[in-house]
Design goal:
Blueprint lengths: L1 E2 L9 E8 L5 E8 L5 E2 L7 E9 L2 H4 L8 E5 L12 E3 L11 E2 L4 E8 L10 E6 L10 H4 L1 E6 L5 E7 L2 E7 L5 H8 L33 E3 L4 E2 L4 E2 L4 E9 L10 E6 L11 E2 L4 E7 L2 E8 L11 E2 L12 E3 L4 E2 L4 E3 L3 E8 L18 E6 L5 E6 L5 E7 L2 E7 L6 E2 L1 E2 L14 E3 L4 E3 L2 E2 L1 E2 L2 E9 L10 E5 L5 E6 L15 E7 L2 E8 L5 H8 L14 H4 L5 E3 L1 E2 L3 E2 L6 H11 L29 E3 L4 E2 L4 E6 L9 H6 L8 E2 L11 E7 L3 E9 L4 E10 L2 E7 L12 E9 L2 E9 L2
Length: 740
């Protein structure tokens, strides 16, 4: 029986989690239902010893006990630390009834008041507190470190959040969250209806509006059993943006796109989308007073061919015009005239010479066709070879392009339109297109029988890593082949379980290899999409579908052991997502949505080329990867780069000094030969803050500095930034810390 701290029955609906005592992995889920006297509904476990964990985060919402409180998460029999918990043995074929009762504990609390723009009281409004990881109990399973607390304002606008362990919390109002839908999803009436939906813009304490701007929210400290009071939130008046969306070619309305407002400084999208009618008229809000960049996003709702753009025709965030909102006024006439994108399409020809043998489902079906900007070499878009051997890459801007069909099947080799084997091959065709053009370009694919093989393993455990892509590049940083560990990239079939890969169809030459470990999250994505229509009670009988999803991410490497430092600009990612769109059921696609695959990347100067001879396999090209945190997706920590001796001797960017700094910091960099140098500062979202250097620089050592300001001389807030050095296909980056 599950009891409250006073020994009474808790009448809440409380999940009970089981963790294996050997490695603390999640093993099962039960439920204590108050109307059954607080009994834990039985759930089935394999024989072994287990820890049980209960978390009553919603008890205060539903009046589950006489105290009107939520209680703190505890391990059996009554401790917040797994180190002090008792294990429960489970024997095959027997029902285990623990000797002691399971007793919840009171935690700390947060109190405050929520008011409207004029100081009016706002009652029946939901407030949420989130603690990612507490100060205590570092050894607890990761799943139990996420602490949530919910509260509802009373008739005086006051709220109380209870059952909080020691730590710091982010507090936010939830006036516009679709709570009714959440109640339907879980099958219980827990959350109150959203009576304020669309009337306010929610915010974090203290005065941070954007839901994605967690880093600037003020943490609220909690110490058990004390109450942290005075956490008051006053919501601001709201305004709206309105306008009309039409087609450039004939002026007819467009009514099947998304309208977004992005914060003009951070680039974060606001948590609202414009409503658009059949005449193309939209209204976007609610929004608080501020500066925004408005984006019309096509490609997600339907497959029409019009291009995503910012207000006034800008294609990138930095060039977009700022739209001012002065609440409660309406900002009007923010109109869009969308151009029709161009299309490059054709078939893959498997037969050299005058004959034409069309590729089909038995050959290159599903392989990527990548469109590159001819001048810069950067990726414009990509798509995949279809069942009939054809391809169609749409929503392209006017310009000059090169097209590459990338092969993963023997004996076919990756080939450009025109017959080139690499990006700078003079045989490559230049494809000129304008708005709305449809250009037919067939690609006659070449053949080669060289290959590269190896294994990918976990550096610490030496266990094989499956579903990780390995890409081979030419010296310009463009791919010539790829493979997936333990999987036949061409068919999608699992062919081994030892982390092995084999890149085929390679011509004689020198190639650079790197991993792309994000692909091993694809099974997780499939699991999540399979849960779209799940029934809450059904997870009691099959909890592994929800809780046994692995979130481990490996930090990528260049061969032989060079840390990769990928940067993703979230605004560019949004544009590319829209350009790629969502494939229809008729399309064959390796990925259902756009992924920022590294189809072009500068080669680090310290990467070692692998020599390939046609007809010969270059084996033993192995990778050892380490589990990384989220920051590994946007940059390798400087400490790791130093510890693994990846700093090059000739092309180098030194760590800045001082670090942390305020307001100025200095660094040095060196070049082995003269060339164009670009030194750029990015934030951790990958958005460009400022370009420090973009010019031709002589070989040798040079110094540089940053004053902590952006391109408009505005002082940047405290945080971690990335300074990136690029020159002649070499790249290196460092992380710097600005403290105001």
């Amino acid at each position: 029986t599950l009891l409250d701290p006073d020994g009474g029955v808790d009448y809440g609906t409380i999940p009970i989690f089981a963790f294996n005592a050997v490695d603390t992995t999640f093993s099962g889920l039960g439920m204590a239902l108050g109307f059954f006297g607080g009994t834990i509904l039985e759930f089935y476990l394999n024989p072994g010893n287990y820890y049980l964990y209960a978390n009553d985060m919603t008890g205060g919402l539903i009046g589950a006990n006489s105290a009107g409180e939520s209680y703190m998460g505890v391990f059996y029999p009554s401790t917040p630390s797994i180190g002090e918990a008792m294990t429960i043995p489970v024997v095959a074929g027997q029902t285990t009834i623990p000797d002691s009762e399971f007793v919840l504990q009171r935690g700390g609390a947060i109190t405050g008041q929520v008011t409207g723009p004029q100081g009016e009281v706002l009652d029946s409004l939901l407030v949420l507190a989130v603690q990612e990881e507490g100060k205590d109990n570092e050894s607890n399973p990761d799943f139990t470190k996420l602490q949530l607390a919910f509260g509802v304002t009373d008739s005086t606008g006051n709220y109380t959040l209870t059952g909080l362990p020691n730590g710091e919390y982010i507090v936010r109002t939830l006036s516009s969250f679709p709570l009714d839908s959440l109640n339907e999803l879980i099958g219980f009436y827990i959350f109150p209806p959203s009576i304020y939906e669309g009337q306010f813009v929610d915010e974090y304490f203290d005065d941070i509006k954007n839901v994605f701007d967690l880093e600037h929210a003020t943490p609220v400290p909690v110490t058990v059993p004390q109450t942290t009071s005075g956490i008051d939130i006053q919501l601001d008046p709201i305004g709206y943006i309105k306008g009309r969306v039409t087609k450039a070619e004939d002026g007819t309305p467009i009514d099947d796109i998304l309208i977004l407002a992005l914060n003009d400084t951070s680039g974060y999208p606001e948590f609202t989308m414009g409503e658009i009618d059949s005449l193309g008229n939209y209204i976007l809000g609610p929004l608080v007073t501020g500066s925004y960049k408005v984006l019309a996003v096509s490609g997600f709702l339907t497959r029409h061919q019009h291009l995503t753009e910012f207000y006034d025709g800008a294609r990138i965030f930095q060039d977009a015009i700022i739209v001012e909102v002065n609440a409660p006024q309406l900002t009007g006439n923010i109109d869009f005239t969308l151009d029709r994108g161009a299309i490059i399409q054709g078939f893959v020809d498997l037969d050299a010479g005058d004959n034409f043998y069309q590729a089909g489902a038995d050959t290159l079906d599903g392989m990527p066709v990548i469109i590159y900007h001819a001048e810069t070499g950067k990726v414009a878009s990509y798509d995949f070879v279809q069942f009939n051997g054809g391809f169609r890459v749409d929503r392209l801007l006017p310009g000059t392009y090169k097209a590459l069909v990338m092969s993963a099947m023997n004996p076919f080799a990756s080939t450009y339109a025109g017959g080139g084997a690499s990006f700078d091959d003079p045989l490559n065709a230049s494809i000129e297109i304008g708005f709305g053009d449809v250009t037919d370009t067939d690609i006659e694919i070449g053949t080669a029988t060289g290959s590269i093989s190896g294994r990918i393993v976990d550096r610490n455990t030496q266990q094989p890593i499956s579903m990780t892509m390995v890409i081979a590049y030419d010296q310009t940083g463009h791919p010539v082949g790829a493979a997936m560990s333990d999987m036949d990239f061409a068919t999608g079939n699992i062919i081994s379980m030892n982390g092995s890969y084999r890149i085929v169809g390679l011509r004689s030459g020198s190639y650079f290899l790197r991993t792309f470990a994000l692909t091993n999250l694809l099974p997780m994505l499939e699991s999540l999409t399979g849960l779209a229509d799940f029934d809450f009670m059904s997870i009691l009988t099959n909890p592994g579908e929800l809780f046994n999803i692995s979130l481990e991410v490996y930090a990528d490497k260049w061969y032989p052991d060079i840390a990769d430092i990928p940067l993703v600009d979230v605004n560019d990612l949004l544009i590319n997502l829209a350009s790629y769109g969502i494939h229809s059921e008729r399309d064959q696609s390796l990925f259902p949505i756009y992924l920022p695959l590294p189809f072009f990347t500068p080669i680090p100067s310290e990467a070692v080329a692998v020599q390939v001879t046609d007809g010969v396999e270059s084996s033993g090209i192995n990778f050892e990867l380490k589990i990384g945190a989220l920051e590994d997706l946007i940059g390798t920590p400087v400490e790791e780069a130093i510890s693994e001796n990846v700093v090059p001797n000739e092309f180098a960017l030194s760590q800045n000094y001082p670090n942390p700094f305020n307001p100025n910091t200095n660094f040095t960099y060196s070049l082995s030969k003269r060339g164009l140098v670009t030194l750029t500062v990015y934030n951790l979202l990958g958005r460009k803050v400022r370009t420090l250097v973009h010019k031709d620089v002589q070989a040798g050592a040079h110094s540089g500095s940053w004053d902590g300001r952006d391109k408009d001389s505005a002082a940047m807030p405290s945080g971690i930034y990335i300074i990136r050095l690029e020159s002649q296909n070499h790249v290196q980056a460092i992380k710097v810390t600005l403290i105001r």
